[in-house]
Amino acid sequence: MTRQQIRKIENTAALWMSALAALTGLFWLVFILGDVLVHGIGALTPDLFTQDPAPPGVEGGGLRNAFVGQLMITAAATLIGVPVGVLGGTFLAEYARGRKIAKLISILSDIMVSVPSIVIGTFIYAVMVRPLGHFNGWAGAAALAIIMIPVVLRTTEDMLTLVPWTLREAAFALGAPYYKVIIQIVYRGAAAGILTGILLSIARVAGETAPLLFTSFNNSFFSINMNEPVASLTVTIFQYAMGPYESWHSQAWAASLVVTLFILALTIIGRLIVKWRFGK
Amino acid sequence: MSVMLKRDPVDIIFSAVTAIAALSVLVFIIGIFYTLLTESSAAIGRFGFFKFITSVEWDPVQELFGAATPLFGTVVTTALSLTLAIPVAIGIAIFITEIAPDFLRAPIGVAIELLAAIPSIIYGMWGLFTLAPIMSDHIEPALQKAFGGLPVIGVLFEGTPMGIDMLTASIILSIMIIPFTASIARDSFNLTPAVVKESAYALGATRWEVVKNVVLPYSKLGVFGGVVLSLGRALGETMAIAFVLGNNHQITASLFDAAATVTVTLANEFTEADTDMYLSSLFYLALLLFIFSFILLAIAKFFLLRAGKRHSA
User: Shortest Cα distance from B147 to chain A (angstroms)?
Assistant: First the structure.
């Protein structure tokens, strides 16, 4: 074999290997999503959304408590996390632009995005659950908010930085104070990007389980009291999947399907907004 | 900004509010560190550092706790999952940036992002009900048949294949971290200037030679940062492996044995800890996990920043 032929064979082999790697990634995606769909769709009945859980081992019942609980916890986390994140990002991109403190907080936020979420659960347990003596929904919301803040903060910072500086100067020249420039000019220019960041951060926390295990815990009954343990879909999935009953397993699959579809929908909408706003 | 001579009072308030919001991140980090440190002080005082991380004892009844077994599980599953994930992830990144025809690039990129968006609890469910049976019925017996008789590495495949073990957990973990590594590797590859690649092509290099000799060396800082970031992620992953690891505090050579990791121990035992020393030891585990992952993520960030800086310079 000539050297040319060896190089050619090596090239073809390497290209096929990398194509194979891409196929592997696709294979897992299709395998997992398909599996969740196949197992979940059968148990996806109206009862799942309108009924509370039946006693353990008894057929029937639904997960109304978990759906409502999940919505409450996620909504409360969003109400805390989004304003703090957006305002914090504003500080980094506007008032502290270019300063060392902005750089430091930006880097620390990037690290916080990947810090194990279970650690945040133990932290909230120590400061919000043990002092009160019982698990509560607010603690779960706080844990999710802590996960959310750095995500929103970093996207907001990036999106505000993309708004051209000349736009601000034009507004300054009209005599507008900085806060008016930020709220009326800069936010408007960056709205689509910030919205995407918020959607992705909700997608991120909606599937979190570990930080809820020791904070909002679980509740087999319907409750809208955030001062008490609140059921969430993800913790219920964990409990039901590990449980011994066949009916629990199928409900866990159905709940998984709902959670997955919700999160994938948010992710895709977020991407579409970016494409629509920044594409072309 | 110097544009304004006299600051509007509302502006002063608004800037203060944004500053407080930004500082909250700092407060959380210090708060987490301080809280975990105080909560674990009882365990630190009793077991110290080296004794804690080297002791294999995990006995809630006698209140003797050591972190060696969960640390062992964490190290093994993390190392194995990275070994499985990195080649695939880099292959995907090469495919997307250098090989795929244009119409395939976006769909595969989206697919990989969706893989990253699937919550870890779903990976866990799927692992328990779908992957574990496949592992115990088909893959593990096959591995045992192929490698079980070999010297040295044979011990890795000993025991009854149950599917609830370190190998299954590592495979799930590897599927989870493929998208992280792949997307960072892709971004790093994209930083390679087209001119440099084109000059290599002009010299008659094949695509693989361009990837191997131009793109990879050029982006190795970024890829390395991505690998360390994935390491930090894998270290802290909980729900994906909580189902299939078995939470069994033991150190064994066989990958077909159940084990415990730091995260799985926390998830399973935190709400059951009935004594102060038990809870304090669990907080100690959380503290170690926080510090280790923080350091790893900081290192990853350092490399990624350097990779980005080199590009803009």
Answer: 24
